[in-house]
Amino acid sequence: MNGCFLETERTVFSRWTSGSLPLAAQLWGEKDVTRYICASGVFTEREIWERVALEIKNGREFGVQYWPFFRRETEELIGCCGLRPYKAETDSYEIGFHLRKKYWGQGYAYEAANAVIGYAFSVLRAEKIFAGHHPQNIASKSLLVRLGFQPVGAVFYAPTGLSHPSYLLRNPVFAGAKE
Description:
Blueprint: E1 6-7, E2 11-13, H1 21-28, H2 31-34, H3 45-62, E3 66-71, E4 77-85, E5 92-99, H4 108-122, E6 128-132, H5 138-146, E7 150-157, E8 162-170
Parallel strand pairs: 5-6
Antiparallel strand pairs: 1-2, 2-3, 3-4, 4-5, 6-8, 7-8
C-alpha cells in the first residue's frame, strides 16, 4: 500500500500511483465491476490505464481521487471510493465507489463512503456532494439513499450513453445556504 491517509474500522485508504496498474486491473478488470460504468460493460487494458492516469491527475490537480482502499488485516484491495470535482462548482464534489465482487454485500461500500463523506465535509469543507448511478444498479441506489443522499433528477453520463439518476448530500454546516 502507498501512503495510508484515511482509515475505517476495517479498511485503509491509499492513493493511485503510476505503479498501480496491477491493482487497478484487479478492480476494473472485473466485468461485474465495470458492467455499469461504461457502455461496453468491460474495460480494456488501455482503459484501465487511462482510468488510473485520470485518478492520478485528479489527485495532483484537485487533491482527490476515487482512492483505492484495502482490508486492514490483509491489505487486499477491496475497491475504490472517493471524490472528484463536480463540474465547475467550487466546494462541490462527486462521490463514487467501485468494489470487487468478492466484497459485495459485506458493508464495505457503506463504511468507505461514510469515511469519504466525513473527509469531504470536515477536511475539504465541501458544501455538497453529488452522486449518480446506472439506472439498473439498484444496489448503488439503495446505498446512496441509506447514506442520506436526496434525489435531484437525472444526468446524462457519456460513458454509458444513459441518463443516470442523480443525488445530492449537503454538508450540515452549510444546510441553510442557498445553491
